[in-house]
Amino acid sequence: MTDRPAYSDAQAIAERVADIYTELRADRVVLVYNRFVSALAQKLEVVDLLPVPESLLDDEAPERIAGSYLEEPDASTILSHLLPTYLEVTIYRALLESTASEHGARMTAMRNASENAGDLIDSYTLQMNRARQSEITQQILEVVAGADALE
After folding, report:
1. For residue 63, is it within any domain?
2. What are the tens digits of pLDDT across the range 45-102?
3. Helices marked H in the chain
4. Dist CA 105 CA 88 (whole Å)
5. If we measure between CA atoms, which residue out of 27, 14, 26, 9 comes closest to residue 84?
6. Environment class of 5 (CB within 10 Å of its CB; exposed 0-12, middle 13-18, buried 19+)
7. pLDDT value at position 71?
8. Which tens digit of pLDDT belongs to each residue from 102-140?
9. Contacts by residues 63-72 (CB-CB < 8 Å, ≥ 24 positions apart)
10. Do the domain assignments include residue 21?
11. What single-letter DSSP state applies at residue 52?
């Protein structure tokens, strides 16, 4: 993947995954990705893609309003159109979050490296100044000792 995933990337992956699942070459499809929490933190996320989790298909969802519903077309036709979109969107989200997580981790690593380099520069500058000061002090002592020897 690139650092700029496109929706077409997710569509291609979703199509391949659906083909593998419908051809019964896999009985379960799991998506593992880095969920973006912040620039400093990412969380490994594991999501069951196929079969579609029961919680997404539950007709007794608490948000459902009581009453009778007329669905056109029938529920299985609607689901057959929504399932590919669900796979595509879920995969695309995972691609985007993984990319954001990677950028956040790189940004954090670069900031830490810059801070460490600054600390090293400060430390070496201090060592160099101490060595130079010691050398100057030594030269002054030699001049004073030479002047005392002449008297």
Report:
1. no
2. 999 999 887 766 665 555 656 677 666 787 778 778 888 999 999 999 999 999 999 9
3. 7-22, 54-57, 75-150
4. 26
5. 14
6. middle
7. 67
8. 999 999 999 999 999 999 999 999 999 999 999 999 999
9. none
10. yes
11. P
Q: How far apart are CA 13 and CA 7, in angstroms?
A: 10
Structure tokens at 123: 């430390």
Enter the pTM of the model. 0.70
Structural domain including 113 reads 7-57+68-150
Identify whether 51 is preceded by a cis peptide bond (ω within 30 of 0). Answer: yes
Alpha carbon separation from 15 to 8, 26, 80, 96 (Å, rounded): 10, 14, 13, 18
- Judge whether 35 and 104 are in contact, CB under 8 Å: no
What is the number of structural domains in the chain? Answer: 1
- The single-letter code of the amino acid at 30 is V
Residue 24 CA to residue 26 CA, distance in Å, equals 5
Count of residues for the chain?
151
Q: Which residues contact 81 (CB under 8 A, 6 or more apart)?
A: none
62 falls within a domain: no
Quote the pLDDT of residue 39. Answer: 86
Flag whether 36 is in a domain: yes
Q: Which tokens in the block code for residue 135?
A: 């050398």
How many other CB atoms are found less than 10 A from the CB of residue 52?
14
